[in-house]
Specification:
By secondary structure, this protein is of the alpha/beta class. It contains 11 helices and 18 strands. Helices cover 33% and strands 27% of the residues. The longest helix has 19 residues. It is globular. It comes from Elongatibacter sediminis. This is Ornithine cyclodeaminase family protein.
Length: 325
């Protein structure tokens, strides 16, 4: 028999913060960069209907004594059941026995984890005086990205591009409490003159053109997480220095897959893991003129590190419940 702690999303909402997500993800990046953690090939599947899809990301972190997996699902018709289309569940295994020790409802947590990754990249790679943020996309994750970046840089203006009037109206309501001027623009207007650019879309065609991006900009590309997805044109990648959460994955299913296929990026070894930069900041931005691109394709160790931190907090505060398997 094994005892499993169940931490529901309601409890996660009480304990997760930008700060504790940032620290947990930073530890995950460093564990990967120092070869103290391992991620396994991502598995994709479908439900009973072909439009219902899910992915499984798994990993093991010897530094954090953490083993487990995340199941991310997309069931587009969930609205008829009053459920969100996107679901996320993390299962932590007891590293000594392999039996489940915790199950966490992670949809809300996933937004903080993903945004924390890009906040770390901005913190270590964007110019210190970067103040104009250009965002491509206006979904739930875009809101998380804006708030996370605003926590690490003093933003003076935010420009957001979306093709949907409905999404623009929704985003305007969500950002009503932010004391930073924001506007909705074309993709070109969002990018031109921006010091920080975040792309948060499921696009399979380049949206950000190289000629729009000024010298000295930092780009966080986080939409590409499977074969065929692309948000940046390869000319932009060719102008930039390359960073990633996991270089080998970035050239396989991340934003860098296209530049790699075109021979612009000769090998994954030429991409710097972000965790190496957090340990040695001199490996990051070299001057105020270079363009830096961080490819955030998402890795299981990020999920597991954040989940472990949330599990410890939940236990400290008496949140969640336990069941016997």
């Amino acid at each position: 028999m094994s005892t499993v702690t169940v931490v529901p999303e309601s409890a996660i909402r009480e304990i997760v913060t930008r700060e504790n997500a940032y620290e947990a993800v930073k530890k995950a990046f460093e564990a990967i960069a120092e070869d103290r953690a391992e991620v396994f090939p991502v598995t994709f599947g479908t439900g009973l209907a072909p439009q219902d899809v899910f992915g499984v990301k798994a990993g093991a972190d010897s530094a954090g004594a953490t083993v487990g997996l995340k199941i991310g699902s997309y069931w587009p018709d969930n609205g008829q059941h009053d459920l969100p289309a996107h679901g996320s569940t993390i299962i932590l295994l007891d590293p000594d026995t392999g039996f489940p020790m915790a199950i966490l409802g992670a949809a809300y947590l996933n937004g903080f984890r993903t945004a924390a990754a890009n906040a770390i990249a901005v913190d270590y790679l964007a110019r210190k005086d970067a103040s104009v943020l250009g965002v491509i996309g206006a979904g739930h994750q875009a809101e998380h990205e804006i708030r996370a970046v605003a926590a690490v840089r003093a933003l003076s203006r935010i420009r957001i591009h979306t093709r949907s009037t409905g999404r623009a109206e929704w985003m305007a309501r969500q950002l009503d409490d932010i004391d930073i001027p924001f506007e909705f623009t074309s993709a070109q207007q969002a990018v031109e003159g921006a010091d920080i650019i975040a792309t948060v879309t499921p696009s399979t065609q380049p949206i950000v053109r190289s000629e729009w991006v000024a010298a000295g900009a930092h780009v966080c590309a986080m939409g590409a997480d499977s074969k065929g997805k692309q948000e940046l044109d390869t000319d932009l990648v060719a102008r930039a220095r390359w960073f990633a959460d996991l270089p080998a994955q970035s050239v396989a299913i991340g934003e860098f897959q296209h530049a790699f296929a075109a021979g612009i990026i000769p090998s994954a070894d030429t991409i710097c893991p972000l965790g190496r930069v957090t340990r040695q900041p001199d490996l990051g931005r070299r001057d105020d003129e270079e363009i830096t691109v961080f490819d955030s394709s998402g890795i299981a160790i990020q999920d597991l590190s954040v989940a472990r931190a949330m599990l410890e907090l939940a236990r400290e505060r008496g949140l969640g419940s336990t069941v016997e398997l």
